[in-house]
UniProtKB/TrEMBL annotation:
Keywords: Glycosidase, Hydrolase, Signal. Residues 1-31 form the signal peptide. GO terms for biological process: carbohydrate catabolic process; cell wall macromolecule catabolic process; peptidoglycan catabolic process. Its EC number is 3.2.1.17. This is Lysozyme M1. One of its GO terms (molecular function) is lysozyme activity.
């Protein structure tokens, strides 16, 4: 008899965990929130990514390349360390349109060099954000072709760069730049690319007005400071935010991750149990829970209610699940 009650208790615990997962799926989404991030390069030296993650940082960007034939010495270490710690990370290229202004292949050369350095990270699902083109250098007006403005030259340079990235990777690079460039040096169609704004004149939760995003009228990521202090990093570091949920942030992963944690081909309550036990890649992180909520595809009638059942309903359904599980085990 005691064995029966032990099995019943174990089944009840598992079913209640499952019901909690269903409740999480059916809750009304939380209002938009700021998710903390950073961007780094060799200037930050050796980073303790576990400490960074524990400090609440959920995403990062790291310098990969600059111009042609330059790879940041900390690039590979940062990509590996961040992803191992459960921090979503993406590489960025520091654009040098001021290097070979009269070479029509300049942007393509830099793009190919960049893709050569980063493409290995985009071969399978992982915590790798889409890459970024860092635009903060402007060619001198007297060095560009006659009849061409700095604005038109730089805009075409960006188009040429992203044409190569999209051809080789299947997606384009986001654009990082400051308010001055966004307002004065980009033609309107550059807004087709996602935008990471640099503006240090505001501090979250206060945000820059839409006018400071130039042709975009808004931003996806925002670098709000160059002097943030984060455990695991010696010295100041750039601070960034993403406004939205973890599920929203995960939309920027280049190769979407899967919440099929148990590898059985679907996303269901068993995957939630894997997450609850910490038996997932990120040991039960908030990001994985958000991913599970986003991808949950069960056919339970509870999903169709679009609301969380009241306590008595949860209890009744839980008992039904227990009895159903016991019946299956007895069969």
């Amino acid at each position: 008899m005691s064995h029966f009650y032990s099995k019943l208790a174990a089944l009840f615990h598992r079913r209640m965990i499952f019901m909690l997962g269903v409740a999480l799926v059916t809750q009304t989404p939380l209002a938009a929130q700021f998710i903390q991030g950073i961007d780094v390069s060799h200037w930050q030296g050796n980073i303790n990514w576990a400490s960074v993650k524990n400090a609440g940082v959920e995403f990062a960007f790291t310098k990969a390349t600059e111009g042609v034939d330059f790879i940041d010495v900390r690039y590979s270490q940062n990509m590996a360390g961040a992803s191992a710690a459960g921090v979503m990370i993406g590489p960025y290229h520091f654009a040098r349109p001021d290097s070979f202004e009269n070479d029509p292949l300049d942007a393509a050369n830099e793009a190919n060099d960049f893709v050569d350095a980063i493409q290995a990270y985009y071969q399978s699902p992982g915590l790798f954000l889409r890459p970024v083109l860092d635009v903060e250098r402007l060619p001198d007006a007297h060095q560009i072709p006659i009849g061409t403005t700095q604005k038109s030259f730089l805009s075409q340079w960006i188009r040429n760069f992203n044409a190569v990235v999209e051809t080789r990777l299947g997606f384009t690079a986001m654009i990082y730049s400051n308010s001055n460039y966004a307002i004065n040096y980009f033609e309107s169609d550059i807004a087709q690319y996602d935008f990471w704004l640099a503006n240090w004149n505001y501090t979250p939760p206060s945000t820059p007005p839409s006018s400071l995003s130039g042709v975009w009228n808004d931003w996806d990521f925002w670098q709000w400071t160059d002097s943030w202090s984060v455990p695991g990093i010696a010295g100041p570091v750039d601070g960034d935010v993403f406004e939205g949920s973890m599920a929203d942030l995960m939309q920027f992963l280049a190769v979407p991750a899967s919440a099929d944690f148990d590898g059985d081909g679907d996303v269901d309550g068993h995957d939630f149990l894997e997450w609850q036990r910490g038996e997932t890649t990120e040991s039960g992180s908030a990001g994985e829970l958000a991913l599970w909520q986003e991808q949950y595809g069960g056919s339970s009638p509870l999903i169709a209610t679009k609301s969380v059942p009241e306590a008595p309903s949860i209890l009744l359904v839980s008992i039904a699940w227990v009895l159903y599980g016991y019946k299956r085990n007895r069969a």
